[in-house]
Specification:
Length: 758
Amino acid sequence: MIRRRYNKLEGLKDLDGIWKSDKSNMKSIVVSYFNNLFSNIPSSYAYGDLPNLFPTLDEGVAEDLNKPVCEDEAKDGLSDGDATSNDSPIEQVRLMVPITDDPTLPTLTFRTWVLGPITCAILAFVSQFFLYRQNTIRIPSTCVQMLLIALGKLMAATLPSKPVKVPGTRWSFSMNPGPFNIKENVLLTILATSGSDSPYAVTILSVKKIYYKKYLNFWAGLLMVLTTQFFLITVTASFAYAVVPGYFFPSIGALSIVCLFWKNSVTAQLIGSGLSGFGIGSFSFDWNVISSYLANPLGFPMSTIISNAIGFVLLLYIICPIAYWTNSNNARHFPFSSLELFDKSGHLYDVSKVLNHSDLTFNKKGYENYSHLYMSVVYLFSIGFEFASITATLSHFVAFHARDVWRQFKQAYLNKNANIEDIHNRLMKKYDLVPQWWFFAIAVLGIFMGILSCEGFGNQMQLPYWGILLACLIVMIFLLPLGVLRATTGQSMDLVVISELLMGYIYPGRPIANLVFKALTISTQSHALSFFSEFKLAHYMKIAPRSMFVAQVTGTIISSIVSVAASWWLLSAVENICVPEKLPKGSPWTCPGMTVTYDNSVIWGVVGPMRIYYPDGVYSKLLYFFLIGGIAPLLIWALSKYFPEKKWIKSINIPNILGGASVLLIAGAVNYWSWITVGVLFNVIIYNKYKDWWTKYNYVLANGLDLGVAFQSLLTSATLQINGIYGVNWWGLDVGDHCPLAQCPTAPGVSVEGCPTV
């Protein structure tokens, strides 16, 4: 019965049938949805209203679309009277994925090679450009897809179809091989969005130049990055409004009513600060602030919003206040929440006293004569939550999903007599697989470039060759369980803390080596899982694996080169970039993400976990979070078994709760309160009272807001702010929240410049 509701989609050959339908008033949503379908279930699915995302088709159109394109393939393997044997054994796939294919649809077309690289380069530049701002901006893939549909159909309507011969060869190609189709759009999106995320290895260039004051060879940096990388109304309104918080009135990004009334009280400003305190009475009217760190709240189900809210409240309003006001580890000698590191006197930690500047290695004698390293209480327990999330994710997977995974494994690999080939596997047999030697060649080339980058260029990366091999080994060990985890639970766990911790113990006292090892590990893991996810998408969209591989590699190379070049240019063009105290008023180039990366290199690389945690550190008890994270999901599992009638117990997801506070240190309470408020407004109030409006416009509004803010920020940044023009000089130009005293210590007798002594 349920399946019949989705029959309109099962015969979807390409977008042309829908685009030509008079009733298809939501054309772009079909394309944007498929790209995210198998990695993130949209909020509409959580609410059980998925069919409303798609246009209603005429009966004739529906019948035509339901007719399999490859009938022989569709019938292959069918048992008499068994309709379901022709489809996937996975219910979500049966409900949503077409069981048809048209292998004649072109994919790697002239349009793909023109639009793909250009869009990828633009996105890579924009992503790297905004990485250094106070609030980062990311253009969603759905916005990219909408633009690519328009551009692709424009090229299909205007370019000539006559074959073009390549001079001096027998080769020829067509600039317009036919209507712009869904397979082209998927490949274009994969290629283009390869540039949407800045390569983590690029931060090595910035941290070494800005904070360690050391030159890094451009080609060494490029080799390292290549190694690790392998609506109109809404948009216009969003663009126009974004000029106000983005240029003329940045302060509305984190307005604090409490701080405006109590300008001389440390306690009041600590309570009211949305960036450095509890954020009571603080709210943001800047869409960039609301969506920059926690992503667009209009696209999340209420269950995710609740999980994030629980984690946020647990960390900021329960654990941190208890530790702070009881002065655990002298917490009140330092700010409640700060990105900075401190010494025992409450002043900023002078890294130069514990570092040999000549080779950027740890100075043990200087450290013994100076001070232990201290953190703000929010910084400290944010790391604790990261510790707990690692073991909680694995524990949750074992408790709730291991049995299902093992059963599916036995069915797939041990039961040889079972007919496990569904229609999608059979349809994909007509396409050639990617040869194994292609992957081996990429791996060997990547390892070679990594070793050359580390061992060559005067050993600027500090990491010996065995670090490259160790990073590959770690990824190989964790890749399968992490891949199964993402595929079965939709949750992701990265290897950031594991890589930092491991290299901190094995090869301490070398901050750049720690950064490089972390970049190699998490980027390799991230790209491997992305490749898996994209090949899974290609499998369901019936795209030739070789075409997908070519698009992925091309996009990765383009985005790597453009990202390094953009970072290199910004570091030279913006004076005092990432040094907030030296920047002019209103400058957005404060780089909070870079500051955290630098701090982590000091914590894990310079001083090292042995002197901060176990065995000689002041924060050794923080390692108990590993144990807490491992036990908590098991308790939830036990409760769900003991009270089987309480179905809501199984919905308690400890990894999601712990991950909910993952960006609190950088984003601040104002981001969370604003994000939660907007999420509840649209996904509860508007969804329940105005469901038709929500179904038709919620995602269009979400994409329009993101796109308008991105265009406005790029325009003002590239034309005005990059040239030192930051707007009218008035109190609203401050990018902070007007709560400077929230950064002050509250312990008696601690004297810090700019702060009253308690």
